[in-house]
Amino acid sequence: MATRIMLKNVVLAFPALAEPQSFGEGEPAYGAKFPIKPNSEQHKAIEAAILAEATEAWKDKAASVLKMLEEDGKVAFTKKVYRSKKTGEAYQGFEGTHYLSTRNAKTQPSVYNAYGDEVDGKANIERDAFSGAVVNASIEIWAQDNKWGRRINCSLRGVMLTGEGENFGGGSSPASANEFASFAKAKADAEDIL
Prior knowledge:
Layout: E1 3-11, E2 13-21, E3 29-36, H1 41-58, H2 62-71, E4 77-78, E5 98-104, E6 110-112, H3 122-128, E7 133-146, E8 149-165, H4 187-193
Helix pairs in contact: 1-2
């Protein structure tokens, strides 16, 4: 079983949507992180899904197993600020928030623009689904209990870009042709030479 949730107008961070990436010591995977405001509707929906999945998997032991998993950092939703291990400071966009980590080992999440058209191709996805973009995200929360251990995981099914947000990385969009208009040679000049 898995519980699906649609997160609305959340910030996309550390996206690996075009190709799998390694974070830390883990195997390469698709996914992203989402800052979640404490006590928001998103927060409540995530908590309810986690409790439902834990109850389904561990029945009357759900509360104690869930508490142990939270203490061991084995729940996809973390109720603390996401910080840099080098500086100890909160990552941009994560100040005063909790965060949800999503991971897909094999299935690439869908990416749609604000008009519902699929964004495809690595360059297009990386350009449009940048860290800091505001999206609607379809996720699945599920309980793992197998030979690799117990966890509460979250898979990212897809995102729809809203056209909002600012790039966290400080990167900017590519230059437009208009910026170079005053430097461009007239096409008539080039044709006269031929």
